[in-house]
Amino acid sequence: MTSTALLLAIALSQTPSDPVIVPSDATVPVGATLTFEVRDDDAVIAPDRIVWRSTDAEVVQVDVTGRVTALRPGTARVAAVFGGRTVFATVEVPQLPAETLEAWLPLESVAVGGSAPVGWVAKDRIGGEVGMEGTPTLLSSDPDVVSVESWTGRVFGRTPGTATLTVAFPNGLEASLPIEVTTAPAPRMSPETARVRTGDVLRFTVGDAYAPGWSVGGSGASVEADGIEGVFVAEEPGRYVVSARVGEESVRSAVVEVEPREYDAELVLMGRGPISDHHSGDMWVFEGVDGRDYVYVGTYMHDWMKVWDVTDPANAVLTDSIQLDARRINDVKIHPDNRLGIVTREGASSRRNGIVLLDLADPARPAILSEYTETVSGGVHNVWIDGERDLVYAAHNGTSSMHILDISDPKNVQEVGRWGLEKDQKTLHDVIVQDGYVYLSYWNDGILMLDVGAGSHGGTPTEPVEVSRFAYPIGNTHVAWRAGDYLFIGDEVFPPGWDPSKAIHARGYIHVVDYSDPENPVEVAQYEVPEAGVHNIWIEGDRMYLGYYQAGLRVVDISGELRGDLYAQGREVAHLLTTDDDTMVPNWPMAWGAQIHKGMIYSSDLNSGIWVTQLRERRVVF
To answer: Which of 273, 284, 486, 532 is such that its CA lies 20 to 30 A from the CA of 592?
Structure first.
């Protein structure tokens, strides 16, 4: 071995080891504590030199000494920041055993000749729900008054009186429920016949005193219990028989004739603002102070914001471009007074991203008025402007929190509030404010609904208060829009190794969630175009306009109650593939979103720029 090689080998053998948390993995029961330490080269680092964090403060908390307290079942990571390096340990908090069982019926009493399903939930000692295997055994203290069917989970009223129902699991967990059986008017199916279209929701009952078991013949329709009602919806035309099992041997039926859902409509191309030398991003259309119509569009992997005069959509004119230090100008928003614009920056060479404010005195040639980077230098992905209060709600990449900015003096922007999930590993993607509530699209953590002035939960525009959370297993929660009782949530799924210069096979769809009880949202429907992925949403009236990436621009009927598969039901009104010869990727649309302005639909496409269309519908008589 040469002397140089020998010295190198000695140097490598003396390289200090990386710091580690001890233990690196631990199991800590709820309520218990465990103190971690950091070792560097086998030396224990003094706690005052370490900053400790928990990636999920709802599962475990960690104090300044490295002592972890387990709060509820789950998995979290504990991070120790020391000497510019971060090391992690994994903490598993085991599921607690079920200690209590609660049971209930959807009715105050059971009618003679009627029945009701038994609901139950098992909980641990801190009130968390615990899954139980199998179905419980149902036992009646007086089968002549109340009989039971354990395999269906139902009880049946036989004669007037009172009996006690016992809900029992093999592990010894039990719940007792007193049941009163009373006489009631004879059950009657309502409606007995109906004629509807695919996608129309029908609600059946057999009377207020009955909670029957529901079923429907055929595979093209479904019926689900909702309290005492049976909720029917069909995805395929046909003749269906809806049955309600009222009692042990009592069934009521109804016949439903279902016809196809049809629309005489088309999306007509009115104009284009072609951009085929770089990728386009989000856009906003508005009437400028000069009375003309404009589209401002951001860019992806490019440092220009484009200005289009679309007063005559058939002859869109590029009037200006503003160059910014950014690799992505993702979002463009215009203040409701149409005098101030905001664009977001990501990937600045200076690493000072934030937002840029535009003076729109001359909307055809906007001027940079100021920029704000102080607390949002890590990049802003999306913003929403509250014009009434001159506030901007910004999704900041650096903190993955919502930063609330006061823009009443646009040359002196100030942060006046902030809200974020209390965990380290999180991704805030989008923010929208509607009717005093903000909806945060928090990727794998789902949707967070906050009161920012609605008054229902004590929140103010600068001091939000959480209302509820809703998440689904797939994650990737990307965007949301509230319309009536429903929140329409889009998830975004890109394949590994996707390349924007080539065809992107995106996935993801719209989840329709019932927010009529905002503290207990429930998913009730979905809209999914096969082999494609959804992006941004715009809703006006009973029409939902979607940029559906490679499936182009889609328009969906969201009238009435929504249940089931909206695509299979034929609720799509019209669609247009946003691609032509002026594109970066031939034959591959990537529609970004849509916005309605003066009866026109304005869309941007990642590969081809601006599209202006009009939905032309002719009345279809049913």
So the answer is: 486
**CA pair distance 233, 200, nearest whole angstrom:** 6
Q: What angle do CA 260, 266, 267 make, to 5 degrees?
A: 140
Question: How does 369-393 read in b/e, with b if 16+ C-beta sit within 10 Å?
Answer: bebbbebbbbbbbbbbbbeebbbbb
> Can you read off the two tokens belonging to residue 204?
């059946």
Strands 304-309, 317-323: pairing kind:
antiparallel
Cα gap 201→433, rounded to integer Å:
30
Does 66 have pLDDT greater than 90?
yes
State pLDDT tens for residues 85-130. Answer: 889 999 999 999 999 999 999 999 999 999 999 999 999 999 999 9
CA distance 372 to 337: 20
CA dist., res. 499 & res. 506, Å (int): 11
In angstroms, the CA 532 to CA 586 distance is 17
Query: What domains can be seen in the chain, in order of their start residue?
Result: 19-93 (2.60.40.1080), 100-182 (2.60.40.1080), 193-259 (2.60.40.1080), 262-276+472-622 (2.130.10.10), 278-422 (2.130.10.10)
Report whether 607 contacts 588 (CB < 8 A): yes
- Strand 110-111 relative to strand 174-182, pairing: parallel
450 contacts 440 by C-beta, under 8 angstroms: yes
Q: Is the pLDDT confidence value at 5 over 90?
A: no
Query: How many angstroms separate the CA atoms of 434 and 57, rounded?
Result: 29
For 473-489, the pLDDT digits (tens) are 888 999 999 999 999 99
Which pair of structure tokens corresponds to residue 425?
């590993």
pLDDT (tens digit, 9 = 90+) per residue, 447-477?
A: 999 999 999 999 999 999 999 999 998 889 9
The strands making up 522-527's β-sheet, listed across from edge to edge, are 477-483, 486-491, 510-514, 522-527, 564-565
Pairing of strands 564-565, 522-527: parallel
Question: Distance between CA atoms of 204 and 443, rounded to whole angstroms?
Answer: 37
**Identity of the amino acid at 597:** H
Mean pLDDT in residue range 138-148: 97
What's the mean per-residue pLDDT of the chain? 94
pLDDT-based confidence at residue 83 (cuts at 50, 70, 90)? confident
